[in-house]
């Protein structure tokens, strides 16, 4: 696994640009943790594997039978949005999450102004309404302003954890990001509890699409 990171970082260093990096196929490896248990871990790199990663996370969410927990500043990845909307509509899985509400509202505004992206707004509204989402009212970006965003980036689907620098967004698929996909029940419980603790710090959200704002 360390070799995969070395290849990706060396590629970025040699190219001096993000485009075209992270294309190498990665495989899962078995890691022995401190308690002696064997844990399956797979690294993912964007942008080369960005779309595949988004579909991988969507598949894990769609296959969950107990719970889904999400911490992400925004939610704009098409495959993930579509799957979350379907899972929320079915109502068979406990879905909850936390986002940066200031940035999410900015996304709704951007979609409203871009005809090619308006289809995403109803999906995100259904997810935010159908799941238990809260959001941080952060300070809008401005030169010199404090950066106090809700910046945690983690997805838990049953006993699988996706954690790293990947925002669940279309732009995240195109950036130089890296993620670990970890299959471990104990870690998933810990990660889900962490997300719930972050969620509890912020109020519920009401999407502007639903209120007509």
Strand share of the residues? Answer: 15-25%
Give the termini distance in whole angstroms: 47 Å
Strand order of the largest sheet: 1-2-8-7-6-3-4-5
Q: H/E order of the elements?
A: HEEHEHEHHEEEHEHH
What is the count of β-strands? 8
Report what the structure shows.
With 213 residues, the chain is α+β, with helices and mostly antiparallel strands. The protein has one domain (47-211): 2-Layer Sandwich (Endonuclease, Chain A). Helix content is 42%, strand content 21%. It is built from 8 helices and 8 strands; from the N terminus they run H-E-E-H-E-H-E-H-H-E-E-E-H-E-H-H. The model has no long low-confidence stretch (mean pLDDT 92).
In short:
This protein has 213 residues and is α+β, with helices and mostly antiparallel strands. Helices cover 42% and strands 21% of the residues.
Question: How are the SSEs ordered, and which strands pair?
Answer:
Layout: H1 2-15, E1 29-32, E2 38-45, H2 50-63, E3 67-71, H3 78-90, E4 94-100, H4 101-113, H5 120-130, E5 132-136, E6 154-157, E7 160-164, H6 170-174, E8 178-183, H7 185-199, H8 208-211
Parallel strand pairs: 3-4, 4-5
Antiparallel strand pairs: 1-2, 2-8, 3-6, 6-7, 7-8
Helix pairs in contact: 2-3, 3-5
From the structure above, extract its key features:
alpha+beta; 213 residues; 8 helices
């Amino acid at each position: 696994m360390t070799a995969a990171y070395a290849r990706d970082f060396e590629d970025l260093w040699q190219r001096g640009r993000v485009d075209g990096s992270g294309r190498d196929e990665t495989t899962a490896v078995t890691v022995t943790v401190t308690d002696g248990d064997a844990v399956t871990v797979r690294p993912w790199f964007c942008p080369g594997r960005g779309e595949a990663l988004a579909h991988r996370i969507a598949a894990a969410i769609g296959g969950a039978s107990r719970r889904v927990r999400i911490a992400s500043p925004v939610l704009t990845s098409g495959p993930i949005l579509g799957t979350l909307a379907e899972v929320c509509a079915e109502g068979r899985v406990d879905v909850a999450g936390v986002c940066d509400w200031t940035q999410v509202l900015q996304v709704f505004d951007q979609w409203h102004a871009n005809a090619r992206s308006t289809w995403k707004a109803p999906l995100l509204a259904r997810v935010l309404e159908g799941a238990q989402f809260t959001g941080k009212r952060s300070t809008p970006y401005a030169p010199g302003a404090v950066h106090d965003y809700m910046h945690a980036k983690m997805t838990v689907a049953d006993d699988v954890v996706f954690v790293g620098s990947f925002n669940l967004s279309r732009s995240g698929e195109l950036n130089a990001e890296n993620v670990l996909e970890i299959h471990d029940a104990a870690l998933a419980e810990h990660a889900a509890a962490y997300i719930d603790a972050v969620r509890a710090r912020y109020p519920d959200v009401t999407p502007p699409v639903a209120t007509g704002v």
